[in-house]
Design a protein that fits this description.
single chain; 15 helices
């Protein structure tokens, strides 16, 4: 077999392949055997029809077609390996010549991973938010904990801000009550902003048994995004009572004996959270800087497939679960369809470029993923998915997703290499060390944040990876 590679553009090639006819003999034999099992010829036992009789009865062309279809995948894969290509997706194959007992020639056009030159990233500089925890931050954290331990008592008076009202709702559009617009026995804290716009004003001042009607734009359901007339009935009013902020509260709400110890722990937790957020911010900014330094062409078909995948997932999974269509979503986001499509394309391009450049960095730095790293990442992914590690691992294995997880960890390690080489300062002008300090949990979370930042577009990482796998089949 002879093959040649012609570069059509930085992300697409054409393979020209010539195969001597003798190399098709195994496929020809298989074709005769397959046809033998499918046909019946008088005078011959099933499966024992001679090749010459099959040629006479059904035509040599049918045999050749079956043989070529059988041989093409391996011939194509051999040419890919000979050309040291990294194809993306399925090839477009064209048989250019087929001479019986002489020659098979075909071309195959396919998208390929572009050749990427890793830029010098040692000079990357980024600025991130400083880690500052104020007394007000601690006060807010403790107050949130206090809110969780609030008790309620039914009162015989008009509802006011901060009260908990039990309500029934009925939403109508154009005078018709919506099938999914009726709800009963909802507990709502006035002023929380957790329900419809306008409800706070409607229920404030009402006593148990009182009713009001207001107009609001529905956030979900069959009429999401439309104006509805909402009737609200208050069935009870309860006052919320917060516990006193003292040592007794600390003992009730935590493992600490004093309020000061509880406040000190809250400050420590806030610092950890802000350090983690700071690390994530640094990783994202360094990634953006790295991408801007490198020339990474994106295959058009892969990009379009990625855009379609993202749009499909948004409309058919995320929005459908909220009972919302794309038009209602765009109205809520105050975006035109053109703005939405442009944003989608920009996100998809960034995701693909991210994967390409970090995969190249993985190869250049010879980064490997060990079992411990993969297990830690799997356990964190399981936690975020709401599944047990065993359930998540089983789903990953059954879905053939292990290579995808390995890729996420490897790309996270590649990004960590770049972040470590970058100069990171905070808004106060202080140098920020990206070394993991304190305990192992923080280290694992930071590593996982690298993997998440590196994946920047999980769908693109998955779709491009699947394309690689398909092209090998």
């Amino acid at each position: 077999m002879k093959s040649a590679v012609e570069t059509l553009n930085p992300t697409r090639v054409r393979l020209t392949v010539e195969v001597p006819f003798e190399e098709l003999k195994p496929s020809l034999d298989a074709a005769y055997k397959k046809i033998n099992q499918q046909v019946t010829v008088p005078g011959f036992r099933k499966g024992k029809v001679p090749a010459r009789v099959i040629d006479q009865r059904f035509g040599r062309g049918a045999v050749l077609e079956e043989a070529v279809n059988d041989a093409l995948p391996k011939l194509y894969q051999d040419a890919v390996e000979e050309g040291e290509l990294s194809p993306l997706g399925q090839p477009e194959v064209d048989i250019t010549e087929l001479k019986d007992n002489e020659l098979l020639a075909f071309t195959a056009e396919v998208d390929v991973r572009p050749s990427i030159e890793i830029p010098d990233y040692s000079g990357i500089e980024v600025t991130v938010d400083a880690v500052e925890v104020t007394d007000e931050d601690v006060d807010k954290s403790v107050e949130q904990l206090r809110e969780r331990f609030a008790s309620t008592t039914v009162v015989e008076r008009a509802a006011a801000e901060g009260d908990v009202v039990k309500i029934d709702l009925e939403a109508s559009v154009d005078g018709e009550v919506l099938e999914d617009g009726v709800a009963e026995g909802i507990d709502y804290t006035i002023g929380s902003g957790e329900l419809l716009d306008g409800i706070d004003e409607a229920v404030t001042g009402l006593e148990a048994g009182g009713s009001a009607t207001f107009t609001s734009e529905l956030k979900g359901g069959s009429a999401a995004g439309r104006e509805a007339e909402v009737k609200v009935d208050v069935t009870s009013v309860s006052a919320r009572e917060l516990p006193e902020l003292d040592d007794d509260f600390a003992q009730m709400a935590s493992e600490f004996d004093t309020l000061e110890e509880l406040r000190a722990d809250s400050r420590k937790r806030l610092e950890r959270t802000k350090k983690y957020d700071q690390a994530t911010q640094a990783q994202e900014k360094v990634l953006d800087a790295l991408i801007s330094l490198a020339e990474v062409p994106v295959p058009e078909k892969l990009l379009q497939d990625e855009i379609n995948t993202r749009k499909h997932n948004l409309v058919n999974h995320q929005l459908s679960q909220l009972g919302m269509d794309l038009a209602a979503y765009l109205k809520m986001q105050e975006k035109s369809e053109e703005e939405f499509e442009n944003e989608l394309k920009e996100q998809a391009e960034k995701g693909i470029r991210t994967q390409f450049i970090l995969d190249e960095l993985v190869n250049k730095e010879k980064l490997n993923v060990n079992q411990e790293e993969l297990t830690e990442h799997l356990m964190r992914r399981a936690q975020s998915s709401g599944m047990s590690p065993d359930q998540f691992a089983q789903a990953v294995v059954e879905g053939g997703q292990v290579p995808m997880l390995v890729g996420e960890v490897a790309r996270g390690k590649a990004l960590a290499v770049v972040v470590e080489a970058a100069k990171v300062t905070d808004t106060n002008g202080e140098a920020v060390s990206m070394e993991d300090e304190e305990d192992g949990e923080e280290s694992g979370e930071a590593a996982d944040a690298s993997a998440e930042s590196a994946a920047a577009a999980d769908a693109s990482a998955e779709s491009a990876g699947q394309s690689d796998e398909k092209s090998e089949g």
